[in-house]
Automatic annotation (TrEMBL), chains A, B, C, D:
NCBIfam families per the UniProt record, alphabetical: cyt_deam_tetra, PRK05578.1
GO BP field: nucleobase-containing small molecule metabolic process; pyrimidine-containing compound metabolic process
Record protein name field: Cytidine deaminase
Residues binding Zn(2+), per UniProt: C63, C96, C99
Annotated organism of origin: Dichomitus squalens
Hydrolase keyword on record: yes
Functional summary from the UniProt entry: This enzyme scavenges exogenous and endogenous cytidine and 2'-deoxycytidine for UMP synthesis.
Reactions performed catalytically: cytidine + H2O + H(+) = uridine + NH4(+); 2'-deoxycytidine + H2O + H(+) = 2'-deoxyuridine + NH4(+)
Cofactor: Zn(2+)
Entry similarity comment: Belongs to the cytidine and deoxycytidylate deaminase family.
Limits of the CMP/dCMP-type deaminase domain: 11-149
This protein's record includes keyword Chloroplast: no
EC number: 3.5.4.5
């Protein structure tokens, strides 16, 4: 029997989704006009918010998810229970590959990743209990991934 | 019946794998000591090689796969039939998330991506016809991906 | 007469340097073994700390300075008075080009950037009043820079 | 007496500028609509062209200058005599910080970097012998830079 080690308390889930939507407010999406918010739930119950911070060079842009991770890790948090992401578009948006690679560095394969539609609150108000949230994991989003352990493998001749 | 639009001619497949292994020779892996080679096969039969080019800032590093893509696109090639990747470790190594996102920008979901073990030639010489190559696709490596079309979606209130 | 609009109160300067050195403790420098700490002083007197957060892909690495910026901006702070940076090496280390580009996005050309030697505290204890701190600015570190305004320029034929 | 080791033959200079302008044609500037071309002159007289290749994630974008460098290095060229850059805007545009850091990895401090205005050909046709080209170097564009040698410095206690 497999035990889900990542069951999130409904209150934490609500707090996390609320924080994710709030986080979007501080996006600096000057070039894409595509605001994204993210939030991490730590194993100690803390929530760390992130937003996308763009750059005139485009390549210097840092997504909401990675913002949340570097905030958390730089404050000493490396142990996470869930991640949530939201944008301004109605459908639930999934992290880009760069963010998936950073999630891979710090999270368990099965940690819940919640993809929140922009109209989550409206959906809930209208009686949709799930609010349109899609739940996934890094196992699903970045299969057969490259990770820290590969750098330790012996090099051939 | 589904038709595989990406059947690669065995000769092209051999050429591609050979080029990928050669490409690794020009890796600039000064910091990781982890050399990677990549090669793209275009629809016109050309092969474009890439290697990882690292940077003292670490964040400025560009992987072998992305090197191959920017080489190809900057020469006017945006139509690809297959990608192959090899490193110096015995097991077949998979692209990082950043590279998967760049593959996503330019390739069809089902385009073959060949992951080549470092000892491919030895395996083939020893009678392993597949050479240990693992075949995958961006559909498999970056499921539920974020892509160009999402930036065109209408933003909510 | 030129007025320095960025005179930092000595107390704030001390707080900023102390925070920068503390920030380094949470670096995730698994691959380079080169820890860096950074801290931003906001116009409201708040201090936001950053550390370098590396990634197995190398290219996914985010430096201490950029960590501090995305933390600040994602919390609603976009108005800064000073930035400070420290590493584990004796000499004062300067930001990489990627970080300079992010500083360029959010800071005035003349905003003080303090480069702190790792042995700052020891130097001060030994009577060096400056502690070996080197003061610079983005005007000096990224001359003739590319910035947001260039993206608004009319394109030629 | 200081000897300029980087005097470029006028023919090479012309070839380089022409290649830079041509390179721009293959830019993939889908998101910024800001096309950039770059070209590197190697010590053996070869010219390697680059263009900016953008990505839906924004952060996955690779500039024209970096495209030229990874192309060159992945083909075995690490010895450069000059770099040139052009965009579609009338004024000469300077490399972003990320590109400056990559230039820093592979080029001498005084290697000429030519910033070409978009209307270079028109200027020359109208009798402006310089064509509005601005000449600079990485010493000027990235002063007090972080580089490979810093990663080798001894770490303090
Ligand atoms: Zn992302
Ligand atoms: Zn990669
Ligand atoms: Zn940096
Ligand atoms: Zn650039």
């Amino acid at each position: 029997m497999s035990v889900n080690t990542f069951s999130i308390h409904p209150d934490d889930r609500s707090r996390l989704i609320k924080a994710t939507i709030e986080a979007k407010e501080f996006a600096y999406a000057r070039y894409s006009n595509f605001r994204v918010g993210a939030a991490l739930l730590t194993t100690t119950g803390d929530i760390i918010k992130g937003a996308n911070i763009e750059n005139a060079s485009y390549g210097g842009t840092i997504c909401a998810e990675r913002t949340a991770f570097v905030k958390a890790v730089s404050e000493g948090n490396r142990s996470f229970t869930a991640l949530a992401v939201v944008s301004d578009v109605a459908s639930a948006i999934s992290p880009c590959g760069m963010c998936r690679q950073v999630i891979r560095e710090f999270c368990a394969q099965s940690m819940p990743i919640l993809l929140i539609p922009a109209d989550y609150d409206k959906r809930v108000a209208e009686g949709d209990v799930t609010g349109g949230v899609k739940e996934t994991s890094i196992a699903e989003l970045l299969p057969d991934s490259f990770g820290p352990e590969h750098l330790d493998l012996p090099r051939g001749d």
